[in-house]
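Complex 390.
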Amino acid sequence: MALLLAYAIAFFGVPRVAAEQPADTGKIPPRAERTTAERTALALRLRQTYAGPPAAWPAPHVDPGIEWRELGLLPAVEHPPGNPYGTSKAALGRALFFDPRLSANGQMACATCHEPDRGWAENRAVSIAHGLVPARNTPTVRNAAFQRSFFWDGRAASLEDQAAEALANPHEMAATPEHVIDTIASNPRYREWYTEAFPGRPLEFAAVVEAIACFERTLVGGRSRFDALLRGDAAALTDAEVLGLDIFRREGRCLTCHHGPTLSDGRFHDLGLSFHGRSNEDLGRFCVTHDAADKGRFRTPSLRDVTNTAPYMHTGMFQLRGVLNMYNAGMATLKRQPFERDDPTFPVKSPLLKPLGLNRQDLADLEAFLGTLAEPATPGPQPQLPPGLE
Ligand code: HEC
Ligand code: HEC
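Predicted structure with heme C bound:
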């Protein structure tokens, strides 16, 4: 446990706990808009502040008792001791990630849904499922190296477990370990690459998922304009963007859950999107823990590169402005249907969500700030796949 904690701290910095703050009061009207002169003056001051050390930043609005970490640059990736980095291993993993021959129907690669030029995600609302409901929106695999759990409900504990499930999952590749092994065994080039990546190791499924996971850990961001600001480049953000950053940390209360270098607390929250009792019900974390308190909770996603991974939320039902409008209203509260009236396990929306009273200017600034988290387009061609099977 102590080791785990030390590991987490090395990764994400020392956690802090928010001090007592005055209680919030229900619904609030949008606050007054600012004049252009006021905006310019405030942006000038904030830009100097945020280009400086985080210790000098204004305190964020975080509820009492919530453990939070300041926004910051991504740390270096730590490859796990059981699957150390290797150049040939990552190269093999990269080819496999892009190779549709691993799937049951020979037509679907990891990259079919996690597309490099769509922020390693997909622009359809939910991924094409083979008759299984409900389907979920495809998350990005960029920066997955920094996550503690995988999938919207956190059911995989490592990228290796995740890749094994993605290959076998009827929602995804629908393959069997035997099919995957046969695909590699029957291709001389893949056999050669495998031997380079895993000298002396017999051809096995566990190694294949290690190669894919190793490749995924190389997909890291950190080249956004927000990163440039964090490195001290005060000119990296426009007035609207820097005002949006301040709203994100304070009046918008976003930092409560979206904090640290990845802008995610890695925890599970109910934002009122479980559709409990409806045909499209998805109980999220509850599907893993079977604890009623987890009904409707989903893992806070990272917001890095978020403007390249529309649409949003596990349902993929929203565009960015829609998401921001919902947060401003404190998110919708799911209504109980008659048969749910006395259900003690009915999902409860997170008490951390409160009406914000942001005006249209604020929402536009917040959206502008989220745009500064965009990564530059990934250059480079897709990998050369070994030619057809012999
Ligand atoms: C048919 C589309 C599809 C294919 C193919 C696919 N994925 Fe996914 N991937 C998804 C969806 C949808 C989710 C979220 C599912 C959930 O949360 O239950 C996901 C989740 C993930 C995650 C977790 C991300 C996070 O933030 O937790 C990783 C990592 C990942 N996939 C890697 C892979 C790999 C590796 C492959 C190939 C072996 C693959 N995926 C193939 C659609 C796909
Ligand atoms: C109570 C914790 C919490 C707070 C506060 C919070 N978020 Fe979230 N956020 C989440 C969770 C959890 C999800 C995923 C919910 C789901 O899919 O059901 C999410 C999803 C998102 C998404 C969609 C990302 C994607 O890839 O689909 C965006 C954008 C977002 N939040 C921005 C914000 C902004 C901006 C604020 C402040 C106005 C904010 N969040 C406040 C927990 C929170």
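Residues 91 and 321 are 38 Å apart (CA to CA).
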